[in-house]
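Rotation project, supervised by the postdoc (A.L.). Task for the rotation student: set up a whole-complex structure prediction and record inputs and outputs verbatim in this book. Inputs entered:
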Amino acid sequence: MKKSALQQARAAYRPQMPIVLTGAVKVVEGKPTQSVADQEAIKQLFPNTYGLPEITFEKVSVSEPSKPINVGVILSGGQAPGGHNVISGLFDGIKTINKDSRLYGFLMGPGGLVDHKYKELTADIIDEYRNTGGFDIIGSGRTKLETKEQFDKGLEILRELDIKALVIIGGDDSNTNAAILAEYYKAIDAGVQVIGVPKTIDGDLKNEVIETSFGFDTATKVYSEVIGNIQRDCNSAKKYWHFIKLMGRSASHIALECALQCQPNICIISEEVEAKNMTLDQVVDEIAQAVADRAAQGDNYGVVLIPEGLIEFIPAVKALIAELNDLLAAKADEFAALAPKDQRQWVIEHLSEENAKTYASLPEGVARQLTLDRDPHGNVQVSLIETEKLLSEMVGKRLKEMAEAGKYNGKYSTMHHFFGYEGRCADPSNFDANYCYGLGFTAACLIAAGVTGYMSSLRNLTFAPVNWVAGGIPITMMMNMERRHGEMKPVIQKALVDLDGAPFRKFVKEREGWKKNTCYTYPGPIQYFGPAEVADQPSMTLVYEQKNRKY
Amino acid sequence: MKKSALQQARAAYRPQMPIVLTGAVKVVEGKPTQSVADQEAIKQLFPNTYGLPEITFEKVSVSEPSKPINVGVILSGGQAPGGHNVISGLFDGIKTINKDSRLYGFLMGPGGLVDHKYKELTADIIDEYRNTGGFDIIGSGRTKLETKEQFDKGLEILRELDIKALVIIGGDDSNTNAAILAEYYKAIDAGVQVIGVPKTIDGDLKNEVIETSFGFDTATKVYSEVIGNIQRDCNSAKKYWHFIKLMGRSASHIALECALQCQPNICIISEEVEAKNMTLDQVVDEIAQAVADRAAQGDNYGVVLIPEGLIEFIPAVKALIAELNDLLAAKADEFAALAPKDQRQWVIEHLSEENAKTYASLPEGVARQLTLDRDPHGNVQVSLIETEKLLSEMVGKRLKEMAEAGKYNGKYSTMHHFFGYEGRCADPSNFDANYCYGLGFTAACLIAAGVTGYMSSLRNLTFAPVNWVAGGIPITMMMNMERRHGEMKPVIQKALVDLDGAPFRKFVKEREGWKKNTCYTYPGPIQYFGPAEVADQPSMTLVYEQKNRKY
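Outputs recorded:
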């Protein structure tokens, strides 16, 4: 592998460690925990791993000799910057326990465990990947570990390799499944601990006890870099409205963080749209009004940030999609027999009045996409909708109406962008490099402590890493019961943008000014070297969330 | 303006200067020059500014006292990183000549000169913009300075402000017009010098004497960062073919530089496609074969770089577009009267056999776009064609045929990206920050030397800045005669990718390996701090071009 100059320089970076992890540790148990909701139901489903105490580690002067331990590790789901550092921290951690410990990586995600595909991760391999982005050290995948058959099949290879602990690096679903696997292996006395690590660039795996998921910091910094660059272009040319869609379907944390970083003219937050029960037309009206207001002061340019999942948060569109799915399933043959030019009218005539109105308001291309491109189950593929183009087109239409009514007089040219893949595999920022390495090392400490069903945890993250508190959180503590595919399931509660939270409130306080005036900030690219205020800062979301926290 | 931490830290950066510009200088004249071609024609058009000598500056110990001078500056055309540093170097340069010198910026491009829109650039304004990206200090625009009326109108404001020299920062067209303006002001004895500065991220304004245009270095580094990140994602998920289009319509320098930086599986170079007289089908075949070869070894993923201008370099498509323009102009009414479903067949029947074949091979959406979206002159808008989607769709179709013939057995899922606006306004790399500041300072020295019709020049750019050679090149030296809109015009010769040049030869030597194997390199984001091998390297294009140069 030919390495870039930065890769080579970055290989030498030594992550900053919490002081407690720099020597021998002892386990300090907190009080027994409860799940965030549905305590009885969760308790029944996790008889062996429910109600465990939170754990923190404290430094002690004398270390007990420990036996070597074999550990397996899995990368699950979408890539997030820092995964390699979790693995290198874990590696260094189990080698600290005993130099003869071994680490096995299961290949291409949870499927590797079930299919017995793995490789041993030795020091020379680990050293190639320290402080690098990507999940390519062992690959990742989206197979869900859910069934007893998978668990038993996995146990075969764990036994064969004498693996006593499995670390699953993943998002909320993967960690939910880690808890179920932990419970199962405990119940059958398999002798395998399961530890989770909180990963996702989306930032929606966090709660009272997990301050952030790893990868969010780096990914949002990459997006903020390119958004800032586009804003500077926008402010130099002064002739385009840039509509920028940002990855993140189930929450708008990414868009909010980028807005706090870059101060664009407009940023839509899906959670607010849903809470206010806004229609698509209302979202379009708001943008069009901002375009008109800026045009009135001579500014025919601007930047709009749009979260990828917006469409699914608009109650009216959600209702439309649900009815469309039913309608097209029930009358598939009748619909298929229509000439393309007659389909639109047919759909309008067969929908309920409210949904027909929403459907009719959509640009023709989008409407066609909703009825034509369906997934194998016949469902509308919402993710294929190019929301950034949908919105800019509808705004353009509205502006024409406003112009005819004498309420708008300006030029409206648009550019579209979608950022997602650009940030998921960036080299981790110093924050993520430190955080991930620490999470991996802490996972090793949890393994040494003999616990299972825990998530690796580092807290007080706005302090310098040396002051971070390391420990473990029982995964059941983060769970509640939710309906999934018609069944009630125990799942980790997803963290949406909190409309009462400090990051959103800060945004609300500033956004009218950003809309009217041009207040762009240009964060620039992630710096790995240089002054601490440039290179070592955590996300603004984290900073605002923790600003008024009591310690 | 709220500044990011990086903006604040970066404001303190002091560009590295060529040693000759750190004190008083004297002018050393070289031999008289000739234009690169059409010497007689160019000489006739530029009687007052043709054949001037190259100039270099040498350091001298004693400086003569100089009078203050008022200078105007214009940013012309698309943004490129470093424009603000040209202006700050120019500012510092004329203040070094005499502290009472003044700098005026004309607003929103050359139009500002004609319309008398300007602002004085004082020290406090300049200090806000040092080492930043964007052209927002005075804005840019695309008005072409071409007519005597514009020149005379401009002269009014230059006289009013007592401006004795005008610096035009622009690409090949803008510098061509700078030369024409210089000649005109010289001919009428207006007493205004005109100096050009070579700007364009496209990298196509360079020649024997101008080693590179500014902005190319930074922009390609931003693109290489995000391409590298996508490659790492690609290599982790192992399930997508990413088709990445890169800005640059008239040359493929950007794509080539990014390929040298990132080592993608495939990179198309338009100049090669044209030289080999390839058809669109042949380009598609080549990509499809690479996809099939990788699939055969189990790798259903990869990265393809595509220069924005590709379509216009394919001789068959060029011929098709030319005939389509004529056809649709001649039979506009007949075509407009057709039902949309009949248009495709009508076009095929009315084109010559060869062009009809090319047209029929295009995906329907692209074909429709070619006939529907025409510019105000009725011409096909080639820039609207989403080449990345066109190619990936055609490759998919080809793979289906290959699968049916038993020649391909794999999965083919695609992702599309277009990078352009992300890089044009990035904070300049250390290279561009130094280069631009030096170009601006050198422009001031050329003004002090009393010359006109020169381009500011720094050479030996792969050496440390302290060793760069500063001077001026007569713009007429870079010119030849070319047909533009049916007329022969004097223009600066555009630098296309040299298929015999070292950068392209390096690429050709490596590309078969990159295609088959996964040799991705991950350059990471631009670093402004840190080790010199990370933060201070010029582009690989420049390094390869100068590797075997004799000094």
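Student's summary: The mean pLDDT of chain B is 95.
Supervisor addendum: The CA atoms of residues 52 and 384 of chain B lie 42 Å apart.
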